[in-house]
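Quick one, tokens below. Sequence please?
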């Protein structure tokens, strides 16, 4: 479709450059630094790849690939406003911040999922959806999650969020936000929810939203993107109901324009404004083998479809229009990243590497003389012949480890954790020789009879008790059992 406007004429001259990405699935995240020197991509195969336009040649190979979130799919990647940090949002509940080289800077804390009020937790408790940096304040970003909260964070304080926004329905029930972003001046935070509403808060007031439109898109669909224009007065939303809508936040009671017939099958399909704020671009999705996805351009003033670009046998998942490079980055559903640009109006970026020829690998041949060493020819590698059992046992007996020989007693002072035997010094020798034998060999009968006369002269314990009933002591008669023991068997006799 063609148009007479000057904006559409510049689009007609767009050519594209394809970056070969080796993703197993779709490219689900794109990010460009503010200067446009580096591109970062992420996919459902958990990989994050770094691309340097100035260092690439026509082979278009990434200079670094890593998995910052282990086995969680990458959902969003965004450079900070200074370009020194990257916000990584994955399928986990903890967002991460890495530097330009891929090293981790901070990781958000995970909240307590057993607390009912999500405002009392220190972090998200469910899967994340997306995140965005503050355009003015360094180190501040916002994230939204399946726990029905939108939270702001600071890089210097990863142990607790800065503030919590809780989207609510008109009946006061909580609802899950699917995407969130800052306004261009950073004073507003916008979020689209699963019930089809769009809610906008003042960044400093977390209780009630400043703007709330409850039927922005069809309920039950996931709105994949909300973005502000560069002048900060218009909001564009890409709905899961196959529509693209334009809103004026100064009169947030109905959409300015609405375009339908834009199918989407991915929860992160983007929409973005052109650098001059005159065009809006979004992508469409198709079933595999059922056609090609499209990159569709709309004029902001009239919302007419001015141009379309077919993406061969693939769906458009992500799109990004960089303001300085004036180039469009596209992530597709078949794992490719493409760059669309105008050779006359775009600057640097992909134009730096497309003119470089692919480096040829230098082939070098060398002749070396290798030595063939038979391992069994050396004595140390020879296997010992089987000896007789007796000789082997005699050899094992000489080995103290195999024979389990006990250690001999330590002579002299102790060493190696063992206490030395006594007698090593003069004092221990004297104590050993003059030590007294404390065994008691005294006769107990004689020891008792020593007190018999004193007990008879001065009775105190036993005799007064029997003085009346038994004044004279009577003892049992001693019976001789010699005759009885003679007739007993030998094994019953008492052994003395």
């Amino acid at each position: 479709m063609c148009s007479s406007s000057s904006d559409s004429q510049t689009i007609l001259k767009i050519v594209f450059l394809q970056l070969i990405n080796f993703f197993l699935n779709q490219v689900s995240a794109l990010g460009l630094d503010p200067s446009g020197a580096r591109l970062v991509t992420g996919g459902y195969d958990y990989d994050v790849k770094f691309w340097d336009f100035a260092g690439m040649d026509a082979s278009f190979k990434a200079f670094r690939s890593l998995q910052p979130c282990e086995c969680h799919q990458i959902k969003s990647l965004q450079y900070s406003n200074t370009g020194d940090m990257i916000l990584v949002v994955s399928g986990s509940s903890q967002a991460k911040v890495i530097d330009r080289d891929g090293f981790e800077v901070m990781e958000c804390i995970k909240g307590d999922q057993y607390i009912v009020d999500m405002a009392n937790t220190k972090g998200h408790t469910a899967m994340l959806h997306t995140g965005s940096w503050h355009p003015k304040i360094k180190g501040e970003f916002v994230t939204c999650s399946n726990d029905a909260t939108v939270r702001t964070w600071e890089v210097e304080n990863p142990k607790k969020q800065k503030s919590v926004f809780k989207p609510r329905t008109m009946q006061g029930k909580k609802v899950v936000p699917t995407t969130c972003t800052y306004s261009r001046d950073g004073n507003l935070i916008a979020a689209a929810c699963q019930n089809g509403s769009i809610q906008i808060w003042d960044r400093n007031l977390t209780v009630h939203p400043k703007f709330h439109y409850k039927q922005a898109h069809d309920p039950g669909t996931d709105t994949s993107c909300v973005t502000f224009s560069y002048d900060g007065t218009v909001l564009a939303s890409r709905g899961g109901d196959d529509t693209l809508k334009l809103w004026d936040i100064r009169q947030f009671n109905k959409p300015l324009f609405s375009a339908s017939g834009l199918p989407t099958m991915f929860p992160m399909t983007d929409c973005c404004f052109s650098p001059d704020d005159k065009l809006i671009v979004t992508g469409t999705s198709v079933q595999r083998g059922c056609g090609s996805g499209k990159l569709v351009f709309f004029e902001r003033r009239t919302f007419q479809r001015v141009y379309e670009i077919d993406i061969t046998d693939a769906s458009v998942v992500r799109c990004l229009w960089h303001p300085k490079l004036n180039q469009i980055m596209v992530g597709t559903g078949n794992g490719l990243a493409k760059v669309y640009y105008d050779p006359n109006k775009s600057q640097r970026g992909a134009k730096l590497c497309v003119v470089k020829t692919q480096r040829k690998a230098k082939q070098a041949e060398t002749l070396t003389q290798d030595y063939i060493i038979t391992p069994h020819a050396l004595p140390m590698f020879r296997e010992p012949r089987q000896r007789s059992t007796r000789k082997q046992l005699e050899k094992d007996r000489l080995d103290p480890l195999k024979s389990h020989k006990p250690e001999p007693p330590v002579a002299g002072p102790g060493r190696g954790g063992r206490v030395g035997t006594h007698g090593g010094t003069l004092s221990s020798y004297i104590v050993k020789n003059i030590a007294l034998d404390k065994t008691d060999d005294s006769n107990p009968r004689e020891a008792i009879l020593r007190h018999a006369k004193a007990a008879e002269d001065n009775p105190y314990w036993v005799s007064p008790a029997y003085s009346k009933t038994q004044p004279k002591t009577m003892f049992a008669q001693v019976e001789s059992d010699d005759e009885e023991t003679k007739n007993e068997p030998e094994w019953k006799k008492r052994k003395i």
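The first strand starts at residue 15 and ends at 19. The radius of gyration is 46 Å.
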